[in-house]
Amino acid sequence: FQGKEIFHKRVRFAQFYFLDKFILLCCGAEFHLISSHLDTAKDDLKRYKQRSVCKLVQKFPMASTMEITSLSAVNDFYSYIVLTAGSNRALEVFDLNAGCSTAVIPEVHTRSVHQICQNKGSPFSTQQPEAYNLFMTTAAGDGIKLWDLRTLR
Length: 153
Hints:
The chain is built from no helices and eleven strands. By secondary structure, the chain is mostly beta strands. The protein has one domain (11-151): 7 Propeller (Methylamine Dehydrogenase, Chain H). Strand 2 (22-27) and strand 3 form a beta hairpin. The relative contact order is 0.15. InterPro entries: WD40/YVTN_repeat-like_dom_sf (IPR015943), WD40_repeat_dom_sf (IPR036322), WDR27 (IPR042411). This is WD repeat-containing protein 27. It comes from Apaloderma vittatum.
């Protein structure tokens, strides 16, 4: 898998998104939404020819931060929400259906967030639909906080 995109900084995080239809990459203070097509056809005569393609769909900059420290997006079901946390200790909510940032929560922790975890559900049990609005953040030395997307508290 090779792309023609040249990143200006080191790629810190990558994950599949939207039921493996896209790839999210964090680079500096922005994340990139990339569409990909992996060619799985086997042809012994043309096996060295690269036919897999990736293409940048859009870049999403995080407001007033130097670097994204954590990113979370659900890949198990269709969800348009991407959560990012930056070195400025803020958390930003992106709606990729609208193609923009929808909310910024300043000073989420006393230090930069290093992990965001969204509720992805379980194949073994059912949950109330409201439970999918919950997510957690954690920062070194600051514990864990449980958040609700509806109230941003």
